[in-house]
Amino acid sequence: MKFDIKRHIYLTLLFILSFTTGTANPQEADSIRITVTDTIPTYTSDSAVISFLKDAGIPITRNSKLKLLKSGRAKFIDLFEEIRKAKHHIHLEYFNFRNDSIANALFDLLGEKVKEGVEVRALFDAFGNLSNNRPLKKEHLNAIRAKGIEIVKFDPFKFPYINHALHRDHRKIVVIDGKVGYTGGMNIANYYIKGLPEIGDWRDMHIRIEGEAVNELQDIFLTMWNKSTKQHVSGDKYYPLRNDSTFKGDKKVAIVDRVPRKAPKLMRQVYIKSIDAAQDKVQIVNPYFTPTSSVKKAIKRALKRGVEVEIMIPGKSDIPFTPDAAFYTANKLRKKGAEIYVYNGGFHHSKIMMVDSLFCTVGSTNLNSRSLRYDYEVNAFIFDKATTHELSTMFEHDKLDSTLLTKEEYKKRSGWKRFVGWFANLFTPFL
Q1: 177 is catalytic
Q2: pLDDT digit string (tens) for 319-365?
Q3: Which domains does the chain have, with CATH numbers?
Q4: 206 annotated active-site
């Protein structure tokens, strides 16, 4: 994928300029404070976060079946197989569909399902499509709709364009027949399988969910769909698991949905609560690691308590500027005691966190201002030791393809790169 620097600069400036006319206040929005005492905790970290989520009104579903999809190939094989089984409906919500071989194969398959009488609805973000170097254009959308697929662009750019830069739909959700759901960090693009010449393999993470948690993903999709189309799609036929007492699963899952203006602080709060509750170890993989000040403070508090904090960032990235800020931020945390691993096996785009070998999260949320302050995001928080262990095992394996960031390693970066990192850090409230 050839990087379009002019388009990236335009979109970045458009987003930053929107703050000059908007009411967003990064300092005010980032004013979360969670009190931490020095007393010995009498709780486990997972129970503390579950309690927090319940108080926030987030359901903890207890009967899920889960399957981690740790590569693009695994995701698309599983997704296509499940689509072929669909009987009633297929719902897709993505930041973007890249106009390439995998998307074409997907829309061809969805067209076949329409012929079988299956309802197919697809939603994608206008900003995500615009930032894509192979976007869906009018003729592509016409061809997709000719197959009988309903496809809608979320918040299309209209004059004045600047008003549309905030609050983009960055979620990745699929719901099939109301029984199987998918979420995670992958859009629809063939580079999740083939990689990119500039950065090598594209590492990413997705998860397949069965059980009551799928109802939560369905709620999210239908709310956004009805908002975007002015339709009123609803009814029990989209929620078959509500009346199914025979389904058996054993995983506890909470679907955390960040909705601008409605629950703008929720994702930050759950991340902060998770880190503040940690007693032993926190492991984080995130591609654009420029967290808000409240998240950085939570990490520093954990380090001060003696919690082991390991953070993995990619050595290569699909965009410029932000990775330099990530190195700067990561090095600051290294000085406080965090272990920073720079992944060299391609671009690690996963958005995961594991805490105390007890619970984990997989989702669409980057640890940056764009995700934590502005966009629509969704993460599955999974309270299951086996799933957490599987992710931690992957983390340990990925260390073998990583470089431990030390003072000496950081100084190997050129003076110019270090300056760019410092300069980019000044813009992290907007990145």
Answers
A1: yes
A2: 887 889 999 999 999 999 999 999 999 999 999 999 999 999 999 99
A3: 10-430 (3.30.870.10)
A4: no
